[in-house]
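Page 37, continued from 36.
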């Protein structure tokens, strides 16, 4: 497990913390003005999302043909900020200063308005889809045999996670006076796979083949 001082050395990182599984703050360090109360709230919010990802990933593993558990980590990007969570640790990153903001491929930067064919060009991507805010599947393309039922479930999961991220990020924006909305994208990695969203698009990626700097850059559209 990385030390908090090491997490603070990651480009763009302004705060890092550790929490228990139920969201209690264990410790934190920050380069910015972050009160213990705000750090405690960050721990509660990140623990909540970690539990949601665990539950949905376990369910999708049962339904699908690949393992999405155990959880490896997740990230959320919205407004000016990104949070990356791995195990019990989290770090807050100023998105514009992050290493993944240096992605230069114009197609990658435009991923939020790209076609599904373009999304499938990301390294390791094997399925992609578009969903409505209510979770209805609008379109899907895949390099594997992905049934309409599985695509519909993926769309529902993507919409549900996006809504919860938006709700928690909106609340934290009000408490911290930091802009965490609108949602730009989120990513979950566990087992053999990674699921990522940007706008109303979702994609499934084989983790072993992924280029995460490319993927993060695609999510936030820089």
């Amino acid at each position: 497990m990385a030390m908090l001082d090491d997490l603070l050395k990651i480009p763009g990182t302004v705060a890092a913390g550790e929490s228990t599984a139920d969201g209690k703050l264990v410790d934190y360090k920050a380069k910015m003005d972050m009160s213990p109360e705000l750090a405690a709230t960050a721990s509660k919010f990140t623990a909540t999302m970690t539990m949601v990802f665990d539950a949905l990933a376990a369910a999708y593993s049962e339904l699908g043909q690949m393992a999405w558990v155990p959880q490896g980590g997740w990230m959320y990007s919205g407004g000016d900020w990104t949070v990356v969570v791995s195990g019990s640790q989290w770090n807050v990153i100023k998105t514009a200063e992050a290493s993944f903001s240096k992605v230069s491929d114009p197609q990658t930067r435009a991923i939020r308005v790209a076609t599904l064919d373009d999304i499938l060009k990301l390294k390791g991507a094997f399925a992609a889809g578009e969903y409505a805010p209510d979770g209805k599947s609008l379109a899907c393309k895949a390099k594997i045999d992905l049934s309409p039922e599985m695509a519909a479930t993926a769309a529902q999961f993507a919409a549900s996670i996006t809504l919860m991220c938006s709700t928690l990020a909106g609340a934290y924006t009000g408490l911290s006076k930091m802009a965490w909305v609108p949602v730009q994208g989120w990513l979950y990695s566990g087992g053999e796979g990674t699921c990522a969203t940007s706008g109303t698009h979702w994609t499934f990626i084989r983790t072993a083949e992924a280029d995460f700097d490319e993927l993060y850059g695609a999510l936030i559209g820089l």
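The mean pLDDT is 91. Flag for discussion at group meeting. Helices lie at 4-7, 36-63, 106-109, 116-119, 148-176, 212-220.
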